[in-house]
């Protein structure tokens, strides 16, 4: 079976000094440390250690071959979004990083594909950039799960999502800029607690606001990290909908009635969690994602889906490749060169 990792990230090897370009501080930049290691910086602050797989196609494909990954779809690291900057500055950055992503794809076009980023704080600019990116060869677009206090049920964001549906651009939603402040400052709690909660907040915002009633069913929408805490707490949301009119006032159906409106990835790291996710979402609504090449990603890519008990062979085929092929419009009969082997969906 062909294996498609639809949730991974990239960084260019280098990019212009954005603080100098725009005349404002605390832009992201990359500090190379030698031996293929680097540190992503935000102004003077260390943000994340990374290594050459972020920008080196040969290193990425070497590790894909090691773990039996045929095609990897990557997107920007959310620190590059620029949503809190001036719209035109974010638009300039989106164009620059989108072009850099396609340069990486060009190194191995049968093994790599990219999702674009957009200046989501400005609906018109975002719509223009996603159109340009799709025309240039991106498979879809990655967006953050909110812009400041605007969640995905915001009218401007609904307009953007509707535009993506109209032009056939799949949308991957990634949490970023997590809540919690100082209470989340230790032990990476922003990533361990706030990040999955951000994703659940986004899904429920679309459901309980009635936004899914206004969005076209043709919209292809996926939430990363297994949908965060949504699947585990769906029963709580349904219970609240049935017993509190405040919860259901804008939503005509219980939350569990909207599971056919979006996908999630498989990056949950535990067979028990994957079993719950399959029980809740169904194998048809889960796509294989790793969060590669970061430390919080799946270190042995694909091992969870390949070895988890209770999955049928067809479940594994769907999760590992067939669902992503359909979601992103990849020809199901196409062969993908994989080093010395060729796999077919």
From TrEMBL:
Q: Which top-rank group of organisms is this from?
A: Bacteria
Pathway membership: Secondary metabolite metabolism; quinolate metabolism
Matches recorded under Pfam families: Amidohydro_2
Keyword Protease assigned to the entry: answer is: no
Q: Could you tell me which InterPro entries the record lists for this protein? A: ACMSD, Amidohydro-rel, Metal_Hydrolase
Q: What GO cellular component is one of the record's annotations?
A: cytosol
- Which Enzyme Commission number(s) are listed? 4.1.1.45
Identify which top EC class this enzyme belongs to. Answer: lyase
Give one GO molecular function term. metal ion binding
Keyword hit for Hydrolase:
no
Q: Which residues form the Amidohydrolase-related domain?
A: 4-330
Q: Which keywords, in A-to-Z order, does the entry hold?
A: Decarboxylase, Lyase, Metal-binding, Zinc
User: Which GO terms are recorded in the biological process aspect for this UniProt protein?
Assistant: secondary metabolic process
Family, as annotated: Belongs to the metallo-dependent hydrolases superfamily. ACMSD family.
Describe the subunit structure.
Monomer.
| Protein name, per record | 2-amino-3-carboxymuconate-6-semialdehyde decarboxylase
């Amino acid at each position: 079976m062909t294996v498609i990792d639809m949730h991974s990230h990239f960084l260019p090897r280098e990019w212009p000094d954005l603080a100098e370009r725009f005349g404002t501080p605390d832009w992201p930049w990359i500090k190379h440390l030698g031996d293929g290691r680097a540190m992503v910086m935000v102004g003077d602050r260390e943000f994340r250690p990374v290594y050459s797989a972020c920008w080196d196609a040969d290193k990425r494909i070497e590790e894909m071959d090691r773990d039996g990954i045929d095609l990897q779809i990557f997107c920007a690291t959310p620190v590059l979004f620029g949503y809190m900057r001036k719209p035109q500055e974010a638009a300039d950055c989106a164009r620059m990083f989108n072009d850099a992503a396609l340069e990486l794809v060009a190194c191995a076009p049968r093994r790599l594909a990219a999702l674009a980023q957009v200046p989501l704080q400005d609906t018109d600019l975002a719509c223009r950039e996603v159109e340009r990116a799709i025309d240039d060869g991106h498979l879809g677009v990655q967006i953050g799960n909110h812009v400041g206090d605007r969640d995905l049920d915001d009218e401007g964001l609904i307009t953007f999502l509707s535009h993506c549906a109209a032009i056939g651009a799949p949308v991957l939603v990634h949490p970023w800029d997590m809540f919690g402040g100082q209470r989340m400052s230790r032990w990476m709690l922003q990533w361990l607690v706030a990040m999955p909660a951000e994703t659940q907040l986004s899904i429920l915002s679309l459901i309980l606001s009635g936004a899914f009633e206004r969005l076209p069913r043709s919209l292809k929408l996926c939430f990363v990290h297994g949908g965060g805490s949504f699947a585990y707490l769906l029963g709580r949301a349904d219970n609240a909908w049935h017993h509190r009119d405040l919860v259901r006032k804008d939503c005509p159906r219980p939350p569990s009635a909207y599971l056919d409106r979006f996908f999630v990835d498989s990056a949950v790291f535990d067979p028990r969690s994957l079993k719950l996710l399959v029980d809740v979402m169904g194998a048809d609504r889960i796509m294989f994602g790793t969060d590669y090449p970061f430390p919080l990603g799946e270190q042995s890519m694909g091992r969870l889906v390949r070895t988890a008990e209770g999955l049928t062979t067809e479940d594994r085929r769907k999760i590992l490749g067939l669902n992503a092929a359909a979601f992103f419009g990849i020809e199901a009969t196409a062969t993908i060169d994989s080093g010395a082997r060729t796999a077919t969906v």
